[in-house]
Each structure stands twice: as structure tokens, then as C-alpha cells.
Predict the structure.
Amino acid sequence: MPKFDALVAGEINPDLILTGDVKPEFGQIEKLVDSAALTIGSSSAIFACGAARLGLKVGFIGLCGEDVFGRFMLDEMSKHNVDIENVIVNPNRSTGLSVILNHTSDRAILTHPGLIAELKASDISDALLCDSRHLHIASYFLQTNLQPDLPGLFRRAHSLGLTTSLDTNYDPSERWLGFDELLSRTDVFLPNKTEALSITRSAKVELASRQLAQKAKIVAVKLGADGALACQKDSITLARSISVNVVDTVGAGDSFDAGFMYGYLNGWPMEKSLRLACTCGALSTQQAGGTNGQPTLDEAMQYVSG
């Protein structure tokens, strides 16, 4: 049996989350926030922690510096039962950092990329792939050194018996180009509504999901408080979210991804996988930070019937 249910190849950077009813201003204007917390950041790492919290065996490969932020991330990921044995530590470069200003249900983010862009497909060996059932990639638009060879990496993963999933996350350039070939090699594509509409240039999310499902085998679109929809071939499945007291939405989409992939990797029906995904995403928002509110499987299944 493979060592890992899921191998995550991605970025490693913490989040410094500032929460308060303020807007920053230049001109040396100082404003006070209600709280500050250094937490596990990066979509890939938050997904990995969420999947491990649900009970999947998760391995991680990425790059970080031999610095305070890098050590923090590796220590925290280990505490969350993510295997970091294959992480590459570069003593000559710095780990990235995202500073997030949380304002009720919205947020502003400033990111220092650090080593986010440096992972390459050649860093991921066949031996490591053979140790895994599934390969997950997030933050496509930030992992610029991985982009050119990612279709080849997915093809290599498929040839070794793995399935693949992709969450592009937001495109800072807002061009949304360059991954049509990759989608055709993706088993599960996990955009949110904004990303799905932007990629397809569609006005309606159902139409966008159908267009994307002509390339990827399964498309699961996050709709926030409205739940989610999934499209496989011509079939559309809908699921509602659950009502929670939202404290922080950072990482909710990555927790959704973890829930959906748990169901997918365990052969669940689409509707049940989608309900678990919505539940995981919603429950994660009840605490500050991307991982502090992530549920165990037992905690999530209280809201998932069938």
C-alpha cells in the first residue's frame, strides 16, 4: 500500500492575521486592530492539514527557508500530522509571509512570495509519487516554476496510478490563462465561483462548471455561504452549506477541498462528498486562522447524513 493517501506539492508560508474594523492608510497613520495571530498559511499547507485532520495520510513537498517562518511552518505542519520529510529547506533564501487584514466577511492580503515560486516538477521524484495514491496542487498562479511542467507531472502521476486534483486559487494578474492542457489531465478541479466564472468568461456558474467539466473529469465549485455544486460530464449536483458563526474565512476553500478529496478518495457518492466539503469549509471559519477550526471526520459527520 502507498505510504500516503495524498501527496501535496505546494507553497509554504505562514499567515499573520490582523483582525479589526479598520482600513490601513498611508501618511504614517497608525490604527489599532483587535487581534493578531501567526498561523499556518498557504493554500497547500492548509489543505494538507485539513486532509490529515480528517484522517488521510498526507505527505508534503515544497520549499522553505531555514528561518523563523520556515521553522514555524514545519513545526506546525508536523503537529497536524502532515509528513514533512520531503520538504526542501534552502538556507540561503527566506520563507514567504502573508499579512491578512480581516474585516468581517472580507479580507485584504499582502504576500511576500519568498520561495513560493521555486518548486519544480523535477523535484518530485517517481519514487515519491509511487508512495502516494493521489497528487494535489494548489496556488497554481503563484507556483510559476512548477507551471510549465505541471501537465507532464500530472501525466507522470497518472502513469504511476495516481489521481490528481487542482485548485488554481486567484490569479493576481487576472488573465486566467495557460492551463487548458493541465485541466484535461486533472481528475478533480476545485475552483471557487469567482475563479470558475473568470476562467470561462461565463456569466452563470452552472454554465461555467459544464464548460470546465468538458476538460477536467470532476469540477466542484465553491459558492461560499450558498454551498457548492459539482459537475461530472453532464450531471450537476448541488449541496447547501451549514449555518455557523463566522470568525475568519481564511482557508475555508482549502478546508472544503480537503473534505471533498476525503470523500473522493474513499469512493463516496458525489452528493455526500460535496456535503462533507461544504461542512468542512463552514466549520473552519469558526476560529481564527486557516487550520484552527478544521474538523475531525466525526465532528464533520454530525452535519452530513447518508
